[in-house]
Amino acid sequence: MSQYVTFTLDGSLYGIDVVRVQEALRSHVRTRVPLAPPTVAGLVNLRGQVVLTIDLRTRLGLSGRADLTEPMMVVVQVDGEPVSLLVDEIGDVVEVGPGSFEGPPDTLDAALRQLILGAHKLEGGLLLVLDVDQAAAA
Amino acid sequence: MEDVDEIVREFLVESYENLDQLDRDLVALEESPGSRPLLSSIFRTIHTIKGTSGFLAFGRLERVAHAGENLLVELRDGRRSMDQPTTDVLLRLTDVVREILAAIEADGTEGAVSVDAVIEAVEAVRDGRTTVAEEPVVVAEPVAAHVAEPVAAPVVAPAPSIIVERSAAAPVVPAQPAAPVAEHLPEEVLALRSAADTSIRVDVELLDALMRQVGELVLARNQISRLSSGTDDVDLARSAQRLNLIAGELQEGVMKTRMQPIEHVWSKMPRIVRDLAAACGREVQLEMTGGDTELDRSLLEAVKDPLTHLVRNAVDHGIEPSDVRVAAGKAPRGVLSLRAYHAGGQVVVEVADDGRGIDPERVAAKAVEKGLRTADQVAAVSHAELLQLLFLPGFSTAEAVTNVSGRGVGMDVVRTKVEAIGGTVDVDSTVGSGTVWRLRIPLTLAIMPALTVECSGDLYAVPQVNLLELVALDGQRSGSGIEYVHAAPVYRLRGELLPLVSLAAVLGVEDGPAEGSSVIAVVQADHQRFGLLVDRVLNTEEIVVKPLSARLKSIGAYAGATVLGDGRVALILDVQAIARRALVGVLEQVSAEAARRAQEAATRTAPMEQVLVVGIGGGRRVAMPLASVARLEHIKAAHVELVGGREVVQYRGTILPLARLDRVLGGYGDELGEELLVVVYSRAGRSVGLVVHEIVDIVDDDVTRHSDIEDHGLVGSTVLGERVTELLDVRTAILAADHAFYDTAPTSSDELDELAGLPGHPDLVGAAR
């Protein structure tokens, strides 16, 4: 059995292994980093610590989010350092068995195949499992 | 205390610590006699004291320690087991050592402490007259000793009388000097404790953690200061001011705890220089001044490698061999001096030699040769700027790769490392009289004063170290603004043209509010001064440097990030990097292009390849990839037979076709001697032999430095060991010996790999697929 922290991006449900997640919280004021890759959404002050923020929409090649919706942050640990991922909405922590898992379909774009490990077939739809290290590597 | 030498003080502190440990160990040893770790620990302590006191010329202390050591050796070697008398005498010895240390601390001499008695006692224990010696110590009563000893040591007949005298003297003598010291100089007791008690050993991690906390406190203080400045609340303002003061002092204090003299790094240098000088055949005298200049420990760690590199470099390339020096009218012995001093809130470390100096013309020629700059570019710049080329990646002035330096790890690494800690490095050199490398290092890393500026709505921090002055541009007044030399904006600063760099343009962000008002921050980067055009200047504050993730650091514009008083994150600008980005744009593009091409070439083929260098007569040298050579053989010339006009030899049960390399390459083909030297190639079960005149060497060949001059049987030439060496087209040479050699497909992949190093084998690649 594995547990995933779930969140939505452009209507789809994604999951990150719960042990990698430090916390989930409302988005903070971000300081943009000129000249940085487009996936870098900026730097935030997380209780005195400067944390790099990655916009998962850009990372996954999705359309930009409407300015009105306020994104949420999922802070994950990558190489012992926190990295914050911008998502649309945060969902529940779900527990799924290995039986419902299947690898990514062959038709998936090559760039995304690195990011998406596969999908769990849930009743309500698919839960796409993200490779945290790849996702955080802007 | 002041006149007590630093070394002696350290010795005292260490010895006090060790003696406390010794007391515990001795007592513990009594509980578990024969414990080897304890015995070893005790032995080490005494041994250390003996060694150091001998070095510092404290003769009596040395004698005492030596006596103790003798006893301990017996214990350690198991010739004696630990018993109470032994413990007693060792503890007594410890006390005497303490007394002597106290005397040394008081006035730098061993004072009047007598050591003979305790040494006698130790000797007595060693001689096995233990019970007697022990008695007077405990009872301090000669009569008791008289009574005790005949009973205790009845076997040893002549001994008792001697013992009586000794035991009678023993309690008296050490007591006498001990008493007056304690009595008439109570402050000495205080002093005695002070050295041991006023310094403690602290884990570096604890200090690092403390420093981080202080950093956070400084941030909180900045926040409070900002809040209080906006209110009329007098109490708040007063408290904020007080907090300001305390935080500042605390910061200073914690910073001091992390300071270490640069000597810690220098202490290795004499040895390095000595070994290197011997290896390079130089005579070098090392002079070090300002070793007590203090630096933050983390910075000290960071400059260790660059400094070592510079020192090695100076010995290897800077200082000439003695005969050359004498010929140039200098002393045969070169002087390498290390100097450290404080200047302008930074620590400057100089590595200076009085060697041959660096010839800017040669540097320029080298840069052109390596494709880092074009000839026109180097012709246009000054000598000082030419020397800056030394710091370019891929630049090394070493003519030959030596054991010591010149392996491509050059000054660019030094610069990268020094700049990583916010420092700078530059070089001054006069041909014939020497070179000075100068490192400027900030005092501390974690907290630094910076100017916060606004650009297109974002805040950035400019380190105060880089800042020279601020010039406000008033958009309303004409004639005081920005002028243009073609497209390059400049500003007339006191009559001189100052090149301007718009921060928004460098960072690629949209320009801020119209030309209304902007500020020029005049900054200094390397040797260049330029004006950074920003929208607004906010204020100066102490910022705490937070590291950036490697990804953002690699952009090459930011030195770090920080949290400002209002909780916002601001990027710290790396002025050096921005200067490089903006100012020498054209030059940099050229070098970036060259670097990219070199990189591409490097990824295409391994940059270094081992080659076998052979002589083929007539002074010609030919190199062939070592990877494809199977064996080297000696074959008797008499064994060579002819098959259809070709030379062959019977070799390991098969027929080995031979090709004389000199003839293949159109050489003279002078007759060889009795023995032929054959380089054997094998592939897919077939072998051929190439006959050469001599095997010269196996060397590393830098593939990127090949020239393309082709000739029959050659694929180019290169310089190996300072001689032009032809690169053999192995395929052609082999085909000369066996024209069917490549017809068979290789049977295993390693054989393919074996030949993969050979240039230009389209059919081979085809066979592989």
Automatic annotation (TrEMBL), chain A:
Which GO biological process annotations does it have? chemotaxis; signal transduction
Entry's InterPro entries?
CheW (IPR039315), CheW-like_dom_sf (IPR036061), CheW-lke_dom (IPR002545)
Q: Which GO CC terms are listed, alphabetically?
A: cytosol
Residue ranges occupied by any CheW-like domain in the UniProt entry: 1-138
Write down the superkingdom of origin.
Bacteria
Q: Which PANTHER family match?
A: CHEMOTAXIS PROTEIN CHEW, CHEMOTAXIS SENSOR HISTIDINE KINASE-RELATED
Its name, as the record gives it, is Chemotaxis protein CheW
Which organism was this protein described from?
A: Cellulomonas humilata
UniProtKB/TrEMBL annotation, chain B:
Instruction: Please report the stretch or stretches of sequence annotated as the Histidine kinase domain.
Output: 180-445
- Molecular function per GO: phosphorelay sensor kinase activity
Write out the GO biological process terms. chemotaxis
EC nos: 2.7.13.3
Q: Does the keyword Phosphoprotein apply?
A: yes
A GO CC annotation recorded here is:
plasma membrane
The protein's location, in the record's own words, is: Cell membrane
> Locate the CheW-like domain: which residues?
447-584, 608-739
User: Under which name does UniProt file this protein?
Assistant: histidine kinase
Q: Which organism is it from?
A: Cellulomonas humilata
